[in-house]
Amino acid sequence: MKQQRLLIVLVSMALLQGCAAAVVAGGATAVVAAQDRRTIGYQIDDKGISLRANQQFAEAGLNEQGRINVVSYNGVVLLTGQVESEQVRQQAGRIARDLQSVRDLHNQIRVGSPISLSTRSRDSWITTRVKSTLLADGDISGLNIKVVTENGEVFLMGLATAAEADKAVEIARHVDGVQRVVRAFELQ
Q1: Where in this chain does the record put each BON domain (predicted)?
Q2: This prediction's pTM
Q3: Which of 2, 85, 133, 180 has the fewest CB atoms within 10 Å, counting from its CB?
């Protein structure tokens, strides 16, 4: 009987912790959305752009010809990855450019073999280090800068002032492992 009560208490605590985590995560998402310089409409459009691009890449058979990543921020689309040929790279660019709500395109897809899992892991680590350094800096709004790393190249995008963009580039340049920094900002 005691063991059943203990089990019920433990299960209840676990369930309540899940609820608390959901409330905290939901609240954190709302705070990030409120801090975002993009309108809610653009935030939703950006999700849709990425989904539609990936769907159209799959329908066109581009996924079998390489690895393409799509990031959209305020209607500005960044394509990264590796594909088999220049023709595939250009086709991906045309598909992305023609999507509804796309205002600008940075086609940074490289022709070549897909990068290894270890390289992608290193890229994730670089992104984490750049993003955390941006968030810790008091002179810029790190929440409004999207960081994407592909094969040691760091792409910075978002809505920023000229001073914020310059500072973000300088920060990214000094992170170990960064080979190149590419600006894809929309300056305010």
Answers
A1: 45-113, 122-188
A2: 0.79
A3: 2
